[in-house]
Amino acid sequence: MSDVVCFGDDSGVNVKCSCFSVALVCFKRLSGYPLLKHGASLLGEVRRLLGWESGELKYRRVERRAKRLGISVTRLVSLVVAGSVASGSLRAHSRGEPLEERVGALRRLLNVLGLEKPLLVLDHGLIPGSESRASRMLGLRVRFASSGSTPGIQLGDLLAGACYHGVWCSVDECGEEERVG
From CA 142, how far away is CA 21, in angstroms rounded? Predict the structure, then answer.
């Protein structure tokens, strides 16, 4: 699927013996459409549902707002999953090697999603270093972007946060049973 762009983010701390999660939300690349704006209409749907007028969507704030409105986070996750060509999240144990662990988790998640060569647009903090280093490590073309201005990364944050907090994961390697959404 080289005509696919996947936006990625993570959740959790880089502490040995804790869990972290990574998530990808993928869209068909639209010719002539700005790369970093893919997912904007889906993000708009989530915003409308939450009455979110402005500012970046971050999982903890979304979770609090959804609870106040009586909306389940699972409903929001389902909206993202249904509105993308592929999406998923993976929760794994940390051994205290964040770079290698996140690269490995992204590879496993891409495999689960059946994606071989998508373009990855990742939040700046997901894989430290340069885009060329991340591209070499993953064997894919990688771009970094700011979550605040990239709708797809904000949607990835929602999935990563939901997975980290045990609400919904495609793959859960932290000892809980696998939940596929």
Answer: 19
Does a structural domain hold residue 14? yes
**Contact indicator for 52, 130 with CB cutoff of 8 Å:** no
For residue 99, pLDDT beyond 70: yes
H helices present in the chain, as ranges? 40-50, 59-69, 73-82, 98-113, 131-138, 151-164
178 falls within a domain: no
Q: What is the rounded radius of gyration, in angstroms, for the C-alpha atoms of the chain?
A: 15
- Structurally, the chain folds into a number of domains equal to 1
The stretch 18-28 carries a mean pLDDT of 93
CA pair distance 9, 126, nearest whole angstrom: 6
**Residue 178 reports pLDDT greater than 80:** no
Given a contact cutoff of 8 angstroms between Cβ atoms, the answer to whether 46 and 52 are in contact is: yes
pLDDT over 70 (residue 177): no
Q: Which domain holds residue 153?
A: 4-172
pTM over the 0.85 mark: yes
CATH number of the structural domain spanning residue 44: 3.30.420.10
Confidence grade of residue 94 (pLDDT, cut at 50, 70, 90): confident
Kindly give the pairing relationship between strand 19-28 and strand 86-93: antiparallel
